# Entry
Amino acid sequence: MTYLLADDLPPAPAGERFARLLERDGILPLPGAHNGLAALQAKAAGFEALYLSGAAMSASMGLPDLGLLSVDDVCFFIRQVARASALPVLVDGDTGFGEALNVMHMVRAFEDAGAAAVHIEDQLLPKKCGHLNDKRLASPQDMAAKITSAVRARRHIFIIARTDAAASEGIEGAVRRAHLYLEAGADAVFPEALTDEAMFREFARLVDAPLLANMTEFGRTPQFTAQQFHDMGYDMLIWPVSALRMAARAQQRLYATLRDQGSARSLLPEMQTREELYRTIGYENYEALDASIIRSVPPP
# Structure
């Protein structure tokens, strides 16, 4: 009921709740949730914080992940996920949507929408998925200026500096950038697209800060578990597009079945039932708020 009832909302700001989760032992798992329903399902599975991926937001709008979204586009998704779940949400801030002043605007807008944390990357527009080739990087100084601007603008949001430098500057270049971004005020560092366990361990050995790892499918990083990342020295782990990939494959199968069979009957055993959906979104709780609404009974 977090959309409507103020007494359902956690009293502490989202950024503070995110930071407190990081203080606990173990790695903080952050599954991707690209809309409010996915956020509720992740919460029901027991997760205590979520991730909102730029790639997943873009794909759900039928767009490639090339920095095409606006701040307002992202805030639309943040409001869904944060309000539905009331969990701290880490948001993909791409390159900050511009330079220093744009980054400050982004931070304030994301906070107002309900974000707990944001990561900003050191690519230039048009940016690419971190696991693709030929990424163009901003200068370390320009990226550090963005981090400084984000820190000046924030009230509580947790700021993570992402570096994509490993592919072109090696682990040494990525580490140098990480140190500079931490000096600029970043709370944590996200080394993107590391390619093996040795790289992950070396980066963690050389960078004394909270670290975020990315376990995307079909990328440059091998499939490691959360425990393996923790053992390598990482404090947070995202699965950015996993939920969207699963949902997209299921939808693809549905549309093919409707086209070929003229009915979805054969897929009924695989579908979430009406009762299950209503339970997930708290349908009866909303009805109970207004005595004038007659309780709906799903057909058998």
Remarks:
- The chain has a mean pLDDT of 93.
- Residues 6-243 form a domain with the TIM Barrel fold (CATH 3.20.20.60).
- The chain is about 45% helix and 10% strand.
